[in-house]
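Example with several molecule types.
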Amino acid sequence: MKPWIYFDNAATSRHKPAGVYEAIEKFFREINCNPGRGAYSLALEAGRHILEARSLLAKFFNVPKPNQVIFTANITQALNTAIKGLLRPGDHVLTTGMEHNAVARPLTWMRDNCGIEFDAVPCSKEGLLEPGDVIKFARRNTKLLVSTHASNVTGTIIPITELGLIAKEREWFFVIDAAQTAGVLPVDFQAANADVLAFTGHKHLLGPMGTGGFCISLRAAEHAYPLVTGGTGSISDREYQPDFLPDKFESGTSNAPGIAGLAAGVNHLIQIGLEKIRAHELELTGYFRLGLEQIGAITVYGPGKPELATGTISINIAQRDNADLSFQLDDQFGIMTRPGLHCAPWAHQTISTFPGGTLRFSLGIYNTKDEIDFALKALKALRQT
Amino acid sequence: MKPWIYFDNAATSRHKPAGVYEAIEKFFREINCNPGRGAYSLALEAGRHILEARSLLAKFFNVPKPNQVIFTANITQALNTAIKGLLRPGDHVLTTGMEHNAVARPLTWMRDNCGIEFDAVPCSKEGLLEPGDVIKFARRNTKLLVSTHASNVTGTIIPITELGLIAKEREWFFVIDAAQTAGVLPVDFQAANADVLAFTGHKHLLGPMGTGGFCISLRAAEHAYPLVTGGTGSISDREYQPDFLPDKFESGTSNAPGIAGLAAGVNHLIQIGLEKIRAHELELTGYFRLGLEQIGAITVYGPGKPELATGTISINIAQRDNADLSFQLDDQFGIMTRPGLHCAPWAHQTISTFPGGTLRFSLGIYNTKDEIDFALKALKALRQT
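Resulting structure tokens for the full complex:
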């Protein structure tokens, strides 16, 4: 029987702490009322769950107030809300050459349909961004800087603190895509001078799919249009969207059981401690990279030093198709990886793997050295076939 | 100990069939991979779950093809996608005086910010719409007719088949908000000549909160802009949103476990049969209305005949504040209801209960005659206090 080794944590974390399932089940069995709608005790209890999750995430990301944490269906919706909500015709945006399509597609959409312009600041072949380069592309009408915190292709970390200072000095809005870092690296909303910090719930935060959101500064919250308008359970006498937080950006019924699960995931991370999680990731990544070098004829992308990246590693084996390799790893060895372009054509252009892509291994909290050993053996065997 | 009687099914269905929880747990434990991203067997298995749910809902709503079913976080996002995506500056919209804020707020937003106009066709005090009245408000630039299928305040059913014919004849797009009917009344996408049929997963379809979506005609799919753009796992070599279904309207990671639960809920409904569900609802509603009349001094809103409405009943007791009544029902009797305006100021204006609102009892598949008896006794007691 195959061992089912999961190396696709950049897509979603497959294994969750027991507490996550328990929190979801408990919500279903004991509450399962619509939060923020009725005023009966179980509806209030449901609302309390959401508020607790909001407070927890505010603390986790160092956001001044819980109502600055907004829940969405996923981080793509969060980034769309920020990008489409903050921009007006004539605005110019700066971004990086390592963005995911969750940033690239809204920007391209806005350029083609809503009269905005943008420049993607080039990164090195390792995916590294020189913060000073951003200034070279600044224009008088630059209004927004949007950057991933770490690439979903190579794991390369972008220096968001430096970017935040550049944005602050120029009074640009600063939006961070923390899809690949929240739950592994410390992500500090205030220290980064962020206006929007978009997060996904189901990756390294260990919550279920169907959760995500963003933290927002008061000045961004005031300026941004909501993407979705509708019932909020508040000021129901008016057909106008409320202008206060979080209601301005949260319409319709929340994924309340999912949010209960997300809170349990984040609590689990806090209990373990991000330092320990990061140390585990660095150890495995370093070990994996070393093993890959020893096999030979394998190109490993991203920065050579593990501390400059997350636990996501992209490779190619000379003369081999990465989709076929991914298939063989799954079929013969039960090892789950993701080949291709990873919804990030810009990043692959940057690292010169476009359009063929790479074979991606993305590690998570539950991966072990034994699994790395097994994967290395499998790659060795496949390289020789 | 209080019995916990739940009469807030118009907000969400609190009790779900066992199969719903089982499907979610099974997905979590056995699959829990990101659908439509990787190509390993468990990712494909996750994708198969989503496709099966799509096929099931296509069959349930009589939609030509599964890819015309789009999943969203909730019905509010579905209605926003339809309304904001289909309209262009200068367009005129027709809607009804019974709409929820999930329709009223996007329309108001578009009027104030995007140069559209709209008219809400007045309904009677019972919430009934005379289809012919719609034509009186038509303009040369009318492009869209959007209507609820049944009011979330009075349960009043709107004749969507007649509206669909009117829209078809004039080549307007026709959007239906089936939040209150999907799972109780037959909702036939093709028979209604609908362009968009928006549904919620967690009300009468018995799925979990965090699910919803819409069915879309090919002509509407071609014309509508997507609200959210980003990673779709498809044509990843391009920073442009795919133009094919369902990807055009589905970006970012789906609520895959929730969708598995939704499919189980819909399968349960199919097994019981909508006719039986509707008969149960009609029986309880008729019985409840009769009991309310017998108590006296209670105003019951909506049409007198139960067959003209769903199982949602709004009342007021003379001289009594409905918020206080709702509190007492919960506190003293464990009966969950929702007072106020129900995110539907227009509907309350129509039935002349604005801004005080009503006390709403919304029945569901699991309510019983005994529960109605208990509620009637409680109301009688409260009326006299």
